[in-house]
Every structure is written in C-alpha cells, then in structure tokens.
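Here we describe the complex-level prediction in full. Unlike the single-chain runs in Section 2.1, the two entities below were treated as one system.
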Amino acid sequence: MSLTNTRIIQRLTEKFGEQVTAFSEPYGMLTFEAPKEQNLKVLNFLYDDEELKFRFLTDLQAVHYPDDKGRELAVVYHLHNLVDNVRIRFKVFTDVNTPDVYTATGLFSGANWMERETYDFYGVNFVGHPNLKRILNVDEMDYFPMRKEFPLEDQSRIDKDDEMFGRG
Amino acid sequence: MGRPVSYNVNLKPLEKDISIANMPEGHQGEGFFATKLSDVVGLARKNSIWPLPFATSCCGIEFMATMGSHYDLARFGSERVGFSPRQCDLLMVMGTIAKKMGPIVKQVYLQMAEPRWVMAVGACASSGGIFDTYSVLQGIDQVVPVDVYVPGCPPRPEAIIDGVMRIQDLIGKESLRRRNGERYQQLLESYGIQ
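The structure predicted for the assembly as a whole is:
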C-alpha cells in the first residue's frame, strides 16, 4: 500500500505528539510545522523511518511574514520520498531578532548551498553550518534583501532624476 | 528596401565598389604629402578598432547580428573581435551588469592597454534599465569611464553601428596628448584607477 498523507500524520503524531502542528493539505501536499528546536529531530525521523523514507531534500528556503510577531521568519523544507513518490512540506518558524535554526547539512549535503542562499537573502543563521557566508550577493552587502522591510527600489540611489520617473 | 524604421528609409546608392577613407587635410605636391601626425594616427586607429564584447544578455544577441553579414561591422574595420583585453581598443559592455559583476568589468577595463574606449550598449549597461533593484549596477559608468552610450532595450544593430561610428569620430579627433593630460588623469582617479 502506498504512503498516504493520513498515514504520515499518524506516524508523526505517534512520535512527536503535540509538537507537530498545523497540518494542512494545500493542493494535496501535506504541510505541517514544528518548533524550531525540533527541526533536526523531525527531519531525522522522516529520513530514518522505514515507512516514511523522506530521503531527498528538494528545496529549502525562507519566507518573511513581517506582521506575525515572534515568528516572522519561516524556514521551509520540501522533502520527497522517492520510493513512494510522495512530497511533503515542513516549516519551522523563528523570531526575526534571533533567527537561529539548526543546520540540516549533517543530514542532507545538498542543504549546504540552499542554507547559504537562505542566509544570504533572509539572514537565517543556520547553527552548525560549515561555511555560512553569502553565496549570490556581493560580500559587502550589509542587509538581507528579500526581507520585506525594504522598499522595492534602492534608496541609496542618487543617479536617477525623479522627474523623469513621474515622482518629482 | 525601406523597412519601417527610422534608420534606413532613405535609399542610399552605392557610391563606389570600394570605399577608401578620406585623406586628412594637408599640403601635397609632387612626391610628398604633409599633414599632422595626430590626423594620420587617428585615421589609422579609427578604422581598425578591435572590439572586446562583454555581452551578458539580449544586447549581446543584437551585437551578434551586428557582426553578421547583414549588418557587417567589418565595413568599419571592426570585424576582428578580440577575446583578450590586452589586444583590444574598445570595450563594448552589452547587457545587465549585476553588482557582483562590477569588479570584473573594472578588471577587464584595467587589463586593456591605452588608448582604450568604452561603449555602454543598451539601457541596462547605461543606467541599469528596468532593473531598478538591489542587485544590479545602475550603469557601468559607476565603475569605468564611458565614452559612448547607445540607448535602446535592446538597441537595433543600426543603433550599435551608430554608436561605433561615434566612437570612430571620437578616436579620429582625439589629441595625441589627451591620455597624458591632467584632466584624463583626474577622470581615472575619480574611478580609483592608478
């Protein structure tokens, strides 16, 4: 019998009880969250469990919700069970002032660059990452550009004449 | 003939089978011709520009059309595209330059030998274009001095040829002492070069 979302939820609640929450299935893809301290335990369980076998990290990124105080940054893991061809989405939330999340590089080598990218754009500090530095942006950049605290336009600009852009 | 663009609606008949650059002003008599050295050097330089294409996006595709047989930049003596900055005279920056690419453009410029010229082709290289954002350099004139800007997004090959012809005018009229002048040194110093 192939793996169903109901069965995954059952296995997770058996193991973690009340700690895994917010189960939903947008477009049929199981999504849930856990406290950020538990992220490695949950990922390890999903990886090692003989039935679940989520052994491929498809993607890892962050989302910024500036209005959600205390849990502004979401780190999202997309996992894939290649045997049963089932995908799930796993989220942990963190305060934007203390964006420390344990690194998944010990479990998935592919998480290395994805976590660097997430750090680069959102400033999530992956604790234990072997080489956490900017990957895409210039090294001199002193902000995290994808956070929703910046206007779309670069404010340090002096070269474009406002009158030419209809905002004089 | 007569495609609906402003560049080639006027039919221009072929004047001669072979075009030869005009002789500079000077005195001539039987067996001699005297003129200014700067005119001769300018004439030689402007009709043998070696371009260095620095193509990062769609403007580079237009440049490929410009180099092709239909538009044929070889008519201006610029068919020899060099891919070593050491050999080239004209840096043609075509396309969006991300901030991370900025130091590389500057390094390529520094590797070119004097005299050197720079052409910013297209809106992105000239001003950042539509990419009004944190990751894109807002015009290459923030890192290197630019001689000619070609507008367009992307510019048609005719516009690129027009830019090359303006570069030719600049080269032909340039004083031999310009590159040693104080003003030129100040220009370079304002970009932190030397």
